[in-house]
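Box 3.1 A note on notation
Throughout this textbook, protein chains are presented in two layers. The first layer is the amino acid sequence; the second is a token string describing backbone geometry. Keep the layers aligned when reading.
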Amino acid sequence: MEPIPFDKRSGKIWFNGEPVNWNDVKIHVLSHGLHYASCVFEGERVYDGEIFKLEEHTERLFHSASRLDFRISYNQELINKACKEIVTIQKVKNGYVRPVAWRGSEMMAISAQQTKIHVAIAAWEWGSYFDPNLKLRGIKLNISKWKRPAPDTIPWDTKSSGLYMICTLSKHEAERKGFTDSLMLDHQGNIAETTGANIFFKNNDNELHTPIPDSFLNGITRRCVIEIAKSKNIKIIERKIKPDELSKFRGCFLTGTATEVTPVSQINNYKFEVCNVIKDLSESYQALVRKKPAA
């Protein structure tokens, strides 16, 4: 069955202070956020009716807005409440929440000081980001020709819409070539992240190596998995990693709100095992988000 387009769905979206009929939530074509990417957002997972790490996501939404030089006119407590409200209204048990804030249409030029800041929150049922069968076998990545920009060229520590243009281009190219996703390098040619997730590598000593997040987001899921690994006495090494080191690693996996913990079986011609350490971290993460005792 074909998925329902997002503009054809039913229910409510929280929009500028109240739940509004899904089809009635509209913005003008001359909104600044559309033309100049003055837009920030979050992606949150719902597990068994509860939003995982809601407060941390809301804090990051407000940080992103501040870095883009605009102020959300609601406080964080109200946004947290609104996220929970829309999940309840939409009866989402296991799904996704998308808060988004953007500049409106009062000004249409580079300057935008007088624009109204709009806020919307939508929620919907949603399963695995990647095909569940692929997740069991491990997904395949190419290496993108697009690099994460230097940290002095963009507000790199934000979840803002403009930063994702090269991610879309990278993922489209990867899919055309038969890969699932794309690994992106930083401006210096070091391994950074994929188009929407952080990356980890496991060596033969069962240590986990992961890039330093100094030009891309230090993901909320990334931080959770690091804590899980430390609780299992797995050594975590955050450092610069060159692409020519890929042959030295035995395992690889991604972390992210959407991707959760996803094994990687291949990057270009380099092969990796979906080993027990990665499976155990994935199971422990699922136990954490669903608030169930780990096995």
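The mean pLDDT is 96. Residues 7-125 form a domain with the D-amino Acid Aminotransferase; Chain A, domain 1 fold (CATH 3.30.470.10).
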